[in-house]
Amino acid sequence: MSTETAFATRSEQEDWFPILVLAIQEVFEIMLGCQVKPEALSKLKLPHGEYTAMVGLAGALCGVLTVCCNTKTAGGIAKSMLGDTPESEEQVADALGEICNMIAGNFKNKLAGTDERCMLSVPSVITGGEYVFRSLADGTCLETVLLFEEAPVLVRLQLHS
Amino acid sequence: MYIKSARKWRRAISWIDRVNRGVVKTMGKIKALIVDDSSVMRKIVERSLRQAGIELEKVLEASNGAEGLVVLQDNVVDLILCDINMPIMDGMEFVRQVATMEKAKGTPIVMITTEGSEAHVVEALSAGARGYIRKPFTSEQVKEHVIPVLGNKS
């Protein structure tokens, strides 16, 4: 890894967990009008990934951020964002993709010195649960589960070492 | 301006709010173009404009910069709100192109984007944008950034 991209060590990246949580909380509070807090992973049944939104990060910070939840929760998120029932499955995917995009953007904007040297991809959304997601990012993995309308939403940031 | 006390600070905010309300009252209904690849985000931006007290005569939409330019060839708008990261033509290129269009030159453009770095803000403003809002945003932030540029409508 070049000096330019050697932005943070693995232990520093592990310290970013509270920043990621704050970035998520702000997005949910501002865009969905609800307060969320991280729940203990062991207490929850992890969401079956019926909707998985992902945004790639490249540059000083390299990896992928994913937001994963079931169909009902994705619909609830879209409804809260729109203030109305979503018209289509496409609109639900669009809403979840935007949430993922805003979490990634808000997170990188909070890391001093990263925002200008890190780019985000356009969000992608997978629907359907019959897949295995493997990221080639082999470094730190920060993940948290929060409850939205009592259903779990998994947010995972996988970074390249 | 350096404001020492909380009371003076509140007075200043209340003054800005009164000025903004005055601008909203006098500017009448406007035509806006919202350029964003997310249809959900376009709806949210429209809702935020309405919540900010801006009366909308017509809202035109485009899902990328190239589509936005096509819309501007046939329509004159009072305000453009634009994302940066979009496929086909991004927001920065769109702003640069609008500056060269006789019909649209001078139309206030406010960027609404997740890209929050100072470099992006400087690039957008020097390309011709008049305001910059970071996602996630509240309708108060929309009001704070959009109303002043509508007040200076050229």
Summarize the structure.
The complex is a heterodimer of chains A (161) and B (154). Chain A is an alpha+beta fold and 161 residues long.
Structure overview:
Chain A has helices at residues 10-14, 17-32, 71-82, 89-110; strands at 38-39, 51-59, 63-69, 118-120, 124-127, 141-148, 151-159. Chain A has 161 residues and is an alpha+beta fold. In chain A, strands 1, 2, 3, 4, 5, 6 and 7 form a seven-stranded antiparallel beta sheet that branches. In chain A, β2 (51-59) and β3 (63-69) form a beta hairpin. With 154 residues, chain B is α/β, with parallel strands linked by helices. Chain B has six helices and five strands; from the N terminus they run αβαβαβαβαβα. Chain B has helices spanning 6-27, 39-51, 65-74, 91-100, 118-127, 139-151; strands spanning 30-35, 56-62, 79-82, 109-113, 131-134. A five-stranded parallel beta sheet of chain B has the order 2-1-3-4-5, with helices on both faces. Chain B is globular and about 50 Å long. The model of chain B has no long low-confidence stretch (mean pLDDT 86). Chain A binds chain B through residues 26-27, 30-31, 78, 81-83, 91, 94-95, 97-98, 101-102, 104-106, 109, 115-116, 120, 122, and chain B through 37-41, 43-44, 47, 85-87, 113-120, 134-138.
Output the keywords.
heterodimer, A: 161 residues, alpha+beta, 7-stranded antiparallel sheet, 7 strands, 26% strand, B: 154 residues, alpha/beta, 5-stranded parallel sheet, 51% helix, globular
Portion in beta strands of chain A: 25-35%
Shape label of chain A: globular
Strand content of chain B: 15-25%
Shape assignment of chain B: globular
Beta strand count of chain B? 5
Topology at a glance:
The complex is a heterodimer of chains A (161) and B (154).
Chain A: H1 10-14, H2 17-32, E1 38-39, E2 51-59, E3 63-69, H3 71-82, H4 89-110, E4 118-120, E5 124-127, E6 141-148, E7 151-159
Antiparallel strand pairs in A: 1-6, 2-3, 2-4, 2-5, 3-7, 6-7
Chain B: H1 6-27, E1 30-35, H2 39-51, E2 56-62, H3 65-74, E3 79-82, H4 91-100, E4 109-113, H5 118-127, E5 131-134, H6 139-151
Parallel strand pairs in B: 1-2, 1-3, 3-4, 4-5
Helix pairs in contact in B: 1-6, 2-6, 3-4
